[in-house]
Design brief:
By secondary structure, this protein is an alpha+beta fold. It is built from 12 helices and 42 strands. It folds into 3 domains: about 160 residues, Golgi alpha-mannosidase II (Immunoglobulin-like, Sandwich), CATH 2.60.40; about 270 residues, no CATH class; about 160 residues, Sandwich (Jelly Rolls). An 8-stranded antiparallel barrel has the order 1-2-33-34-35-42-37-36. Strand 25, helix 9 and strand 26 form a beta-alpha-beta unit. Helix 7 packs parallel to helix 8, helix 10 packs parallel to helix 11 and helix 11 runs parallel beside helix 12. The radius of gyration is 28 Å and the shape is globular. The termini are far apart.
């Protein structure tokens, strides 16, 4: 298959009202009363909307890097026409090179710092005589991490069994650039042995530059699954693990007289030699730390060293290693032929950006400030609209500490604002984490990633350079689980994360942006069935209710089902359209029709403000979670549009809509004709057949009309999206 990855108004009434929705059960006929009742209440008081948003800013879609040849196959005029029919406004450009530990040549024309040998540090040209239709990533030959967040087809140079290769830390985190002592930005190598082993010795083969001061540590505590897990424990220095005055070379360290049982081991470097390889003329070659190979194990009584690590040039052979940073140095020969990023000219000229400013990334973790500045100059020369620059992507997924990110952020901010001081900068573009974002505790015990990052900027008088907060949202990992319980749980997950972020000090005065969202970062059948449309609508409604600014759906391009879950045989993908083997759109998916309901029926397309009013429901499951969620918008055309999400997989609910004012107990109802749009299993069904699965039926939402009055009831089918749109009758009730 050609794609094998995933993600990777001011109301006319002058009285304070509450919009209430009474719900009954279980008949699917519109306007027919059913058995059980409940109420959804939308708190409406003029001037007290929970949020005001503009669809052309709030409702967007993300475009990501693809595999070789996919851009030419997918970005055809017919595909683009159908993609645009979903109604999204702005585009969020996702940078897969950051996830794949690669340097980004956003323009294939440019200059090398060592032009004679076509290697070194790359700066793309800010001019292009030919349209830039695709761009590429380049693998980093000084890579330290075994794994990455993209193709996972490379390996660490720290245990590859080759002492001519080496890992090197990012020179931009050296005091030469940070203007701070290197001890404030320690560089580390973390080894995961996957199980506890007896350790009392380490052998380190240093390169240039090497560490003159470092320490060797082990984790004393509960084993963690991910580096940001908040589990009890702390790093402890081996009894003989404190090293100073080191001279580099190949060194064997006796770390302890006794064997210590540990799974996780770490080398932390705080002072550098400042030495460079012979014939080097680039100052960046002598900044940071370089290690050719590392070994952990035991020393026996004869002082013979026994290595417990595995060494090899694939991720499946070698012991798992994580590093604090990686040098962006690379060569022309390091081109990754399997990764393509869409070219800037491609996007702005084919119409996908809709003439709107694109949320634009710059590479930060594996790039240079000079390349970022050149990118901004290119946009200005082309006259393409940009407003917000996202600084890197998923630092948490790359295990980058908040202080390291802060140091890079400041350097890149200076370079970008030297070109255009009006641009809004932000990030960090977190990967999805329903428990909030944490890291190893600092000396004060602070584990909050955002709090420490913001403190870093504030302490260095660069807090004003942080103009928006961005993150991704894929709330569920386990796609073997039935979706009903996940759908019920979804709103509380986001509410809890928002609460924690506010406690961490993320300003609410700046825009909060979901740069990509969907059901899961893994593939599964729920993503190609009705629950995907329900969850996406719920994410947008909840996010805007909580004060969010913009949300970008992931999976804009046509795609195919894949399998990623080992625990069950489930196939799916995040996609608006199912593609055939040639990349042509074969059928629209539930996410497409769900998107159309949001962009064309719930909201009024364009750049006029919409007012969103808070909703609550007393229709709940046995766990007390809402089964029906409602989001009420007052549109610029003076109509009310109510988005209703029935998450009950078995039962229909009949809806009676009323407006109610809590302060004075006044009520009113819809009047005249109501437009009703519904999407459920009556319109869509999926036939699971592994990679060849397909929709049995895929029809647009049903549109009907109904007379609005006090007794009007609307039935919500099981697992359905409904938009009810019409005018409110201004009328007082006793």
């Amino acid at each position: 298959m050609f794609i094998s990855v995933q993600r990777w108004l001011r109301p006319k009434t002058s009285i304070g009202l509450i919009l209430g929705v009474s719900l009954l059960l279980p008949n699917t006929a519109i306007g027919k009363q059913v058995e059980n009742t409940g109420t959804v209440t939308i708190d409406f008081t003029p001037g007290h909307a929970v949020n005001t948003f503009i669809p052309n800013e709030a409702l967007g879609a993300g475009l990501d890097g693809l595999e070789k040849g996919d851009i030419a196959r997918l970005y055809t005029p017919d595909n683009i026409r159908q993609m645009k029919s979903a109604g999204f406004g702005p585009i969020s450009y996702r940078l897969r090179t950051e996830l794949g530990i690669e340097a980004w040549h956003w323009n294939e024309k440019g200059t090398w710092s060592d032009s004679e040998h076509l290697q070194g540090y790359w700066t793309s040209s800010d001019r292009a005589t030919q349209p830039i239709l695709i761009s590429h990533g380049y693998r980093l030959p000084r890579r330290g991490n075994t794994l990455d967040q993209a193709a996972k087809d490379s390996y660490s140079r720290l245990d590859d069994g080759d002492t001519t290769s080496f890992w090197k830390s990012n020179p931009y985190l050296d005091k030469y650039y940070t203007k701070e002592d290197n001890a404030l930005h320690p560089q580390w190598v973390l080894v995961d042995l996957l199980q506890r082993r007896k350790i009392n010795a380490a052998k380190i083969f240093w390169g240039n530059p090497y560490a003159t001061r470092y320490q060797v540590e082990y984790w004393d505590g509960v084993d963690f699954t991910y580096l940001n897990d908040t589990v009890p424990g702390q790093w402890r220095v081996f009894p003989q693990g404190q090293i100073s005055g080191a001279k580099g070379g190949e060194v064997l360290h006796s770390l302890s007289q006794k064997l210590i049982s540990a799974r996780y081991l770490r080398i932390v470097a705080t002072e550098a030699s400042g030495t460079a390889p012979i014939d080097s003329q680039d100052i960046r070659d002598r900044l940071g730390y370089a290690i050719r190979e590392i070994y952990f194990g035991t020393l026996d009584k004869e002082r013979q060293f026994h290595d417990v690590m595995r060494h090899g040039k694939t991720k499946d052979i070698q012991t798992l290693i994580y590093t604090s940073s990686t040098d962006p140095w690379h060569r022309a020969s390091d081109l990754d032929p399997n990764l393509e990023q869409p070219g800037f000219d491609q996007l702005f000229r084919n119409g996908l950006t809709n003439g709107l400013p694109m949320l634009t990334p710059v590479g930060v973790f594996y790039d240079t400030p000079e390349n970022a500045a050149a990118e901004i100059r290119f946009f200005k020369a082309r006259g393409y609209p940009i407003r917000q620059i996202e600084m890197g992507e998923e630092p948490d997924g790359q295990n980058i500490t908040p202080e390291h990110y802060g140091a890079l952020y400041i350097q890149f901010a200076k370079a970008i604002h030297a070109v255009d001081p009006t641009l809004q900068l932000g990030g960090p573009g977190f990967q999805s984490e329903v428990e909030g974002w944490s890291t190893f505790p600092n000396a004060q015990g602070n584990r909050s990633w955002m709090n420490r990052f913001l403190n870093y900027l504030r302490d260095r008088h660069h807090f004003d350079d942080f103009n928006f907060f961005s993150f991704e949202w894929y709330p569920f990992d386990n796609l073997c689980q039935p979706p009903a319980s996940q759908l019920a749980q979804a709103p509380s997950l986001m509410s809890n994360v928002f609460q924690r972020l506010r406690q961490d000090g993320v300003p609410t005065t700046i825009p909060w942006i979901i740069t990509e969202y969907g059901y899961s970062s893994f593939a599964g059948q729920a993503e190609v069935e009705i629950p995907s449309a329900l969850l996406n609508a719920d994410i947008v409604g909840q996010f805007l209710t909580l004060g969010g600014k913009s949300a970008y759906l992931y999976g804009y391009e046509p795609n195919v089902p894949i399998r990623e879950m080992e625990e069950c045989d489930t196939w799916g993908n995040m996609m608006l359209f199912l593609a055939d083997d040639e990349g042509r759109i074969r059928a629209p998916m539930p996410t497409y029709y769900g998107a159309q309901l949001l962009t064309q029926e719930w909201t009024q397309s364009g750049n006029q403000p919409h007012q969103l009013y808070r909703a609550s429901s007393d229709i709940r499951n046995r766990q007390g979670q809402p089964l029906v969620n409602a989001y009420a918008v007052y549109r610029p055309d003076h109509q009310w549009a109510i988005l209703l999400i029935n998450k009950d997989p078995q039962r229909s609910w009949s809806v009676k809509i009323r407006f109610h004012s809590s302060p004075d107990n006044q009520q009113s109802f819809f009047q005249d004709n109501l437009d009703i749009f519904q999407y459920s299993s009556q319109q869509y069904a999926w036939h699971p057949q592994g990679k060849d699965g397909y929709p049995i039926r895929s029809q647009p939402p049903q549109h009907s009309r109904l007379q609005g009055k006090a007794t009007t009831q609307i039935t919500l089918p099981a697992y359905s999206l409904t938009v009810v749109r019409g005018n409110m009758k201004e009328r007082s009730m006793p």
